[in-house]
Amino acid sequence: MTWSARGKSAIVGIGLAGIGAAPGYTHLDLTALAVHRALGDAGIDLREVDGLFTANMVNMMATTAVGEYLGIRPAVQVGTNTGGNAFVDHLQWAALALDAGLCNVAVVCYGSNQRTASGAVMPSDQPIYDVPFNPREPISSYALAAARHMYQYGTSREQLAEVAVSARRWAQLNPIAFAREPLTIDDVLRSRMICDPLTLLDCCLVTDGAGAVVLTRAERAKDSRHVPVHILGVASALTHRQISEMPDLTVTAAVESGARAFALAGLMPKDVDVVQLYDAFTINVVLFLEDLGFCEKGEGGSFVANGRIAPGGSLPVNTNGGGLSCVHPGMYGIFTIIEAVEQLRGTAGERQVLGAEIALCHGNGGLLSNESTALVGTPATV
Amino acid sequence: MSEIHGEESPDTTLRRFLDSGVIRLQICGDCGRQIFPPRVLCPRCGGVKLVWSLIAGDGTVYSTTVVRRRVDRGGDYNVCIVELDEGARMLSRVNDVEPTSVQIGDRVQAVIDSIDDRPVLAFVRKSEADS
Question: Do B39 and B101 belong together in one domain?
Fold first, then answer.
């Protein structure tokens, strides 16, 4: 029988740092500050951390760099770097390590100073057969996926723009979101074209920022100072590295990660109260809503129309404002988890989804390459 | 020295063919899949009997984008994915047309092009290749 994370561990602390711009701070400064805050939130001492799960865009050996900075010597370290989904994936390994007794306090964390330091970074291992054609990665790959989805299903630029507008409306309810000024569909359509059909406002922010979450086994989490948020199911899947090798540009590995995560959790899409999707580009949200089963393949564009995923809509998606309007420091996945926890604790302020019990976090890595899905829930859902 | 010392790598072989004006891609001797980029094994079946076969070069634009760039830096350009009739897909471009005019479904023909002194497979529109 497949091992299941269901209910065995819980997130008991969350922390953010440097959301937006943090001039002069290194990615490790920001990571450590987020970890410090998450541990403070959990009421757990740094010396107790014996499981470290991290990746970033700077350190090939990220657990080494972060562990040294924090001054910890973890018994378990997982530095898998699959792109921005890594931290959702790390939840699976943290839950497994906790359940196996390999560690007692697990920290999943990430930080970046990409906005104030060097601008966006792509890995240096660009495929040699792609490089001569000078694709503007990652945007051009997502543009190719968007163009194919529009061709195959009639998805419109207006529908993609609706994703950005919905994210902005959530961001306007989130005091720490980076972009909060009003935004219309016309604004998105008329902003500068970057890679057809994606304009500047179809693309995520480029910000600094860090996030961390602390997990313990469920038994210890009962004494947590906050409502513990239990891991119900996590799964990851990959299809390709470079976009030309993606089997179908309109279908991501989220089909597989989502199906497995839902099965492990014993849940269905209809059970989910609040959804956090990795929205590096507007097309991501359309693809993931389809692939995770919230609507049929090809219907994502019409699904997001008329404010369905915006505040007041029937399916709250990216309630922090997402990577499009809240924060996107290069690898966004950790923030899907942190916002899910805020919502399930009931501490999301003006953007609170009332009565939220089950949240879905979805991370995406590379060029629609790696997908990780996690279902998390309040104690009542275990 | 190693056990493969002296054998030509897949990338070297492709370049040698393209440099001599011949387009050959690997076909898996076990499952028949056309393979690109060149590899040491078939990503569908794991087979290692890969045969360099002449290709017809006919294909269809599977998806396309225009990378917008300032005129003083060279202007806009096309980046597309072409699916060859024999099966392989590759990132490439359609030459000699307005980048915005490239459409999904366009029939194209492979040509050997050179970018930064490296031989590459680019494409031209089928009608223009025929004329």
Answer: no
For chains A and B, count residue pairs whose Cβ atoms are closer than 8 Å: 74
Q: In this complex, is the C-beta atom of A73 within 8 Å of any C-beta atom belonging to chain B?
A: no
- Helix residue ranges per DSSP H, A266-311: 282-291, 300-304
Best mutation target among A196, A248, A249 (most B Cβ atoms within 10 Å) is A196
Q: Is the ipTM of this complex over 0.85?
A: yes
Do B63 and B96 share a domain, yes or no? yes
Q: Per the CB < 8 Å rule, is B37 touching A128?
A: yes
Are B45 and B87 contained in the same domain? Answer: no
Give Cβ neighbours of residue A341 (< 8 Å, ≥ 6 apart): A11, A14, A213, A229, A376
Collapsing DSSP to helix, strand or coil, A43 comes out as coil
Choose from A129, A130, A142, A198 for mutation: most chain B CBs within 10 A: A129
Burial of A60 (0-12, 13-18, 19+ CB in 10 A): exposed
Instruction: Select the residue of A133, A151, A242 nearest B79 (Cβ to Cβ).
Output: A133
Domains of chain A in start order, with CATH, are: 9-118+207-226 (3.40.47.10), 136-202+233-381 (3.40.47.10)
Tens-place pLDDT, residues B54-66: 999 999 999 999 9
* Segment A348-367, tens digit of pLDDT: 999 999 999 999 999 999 99
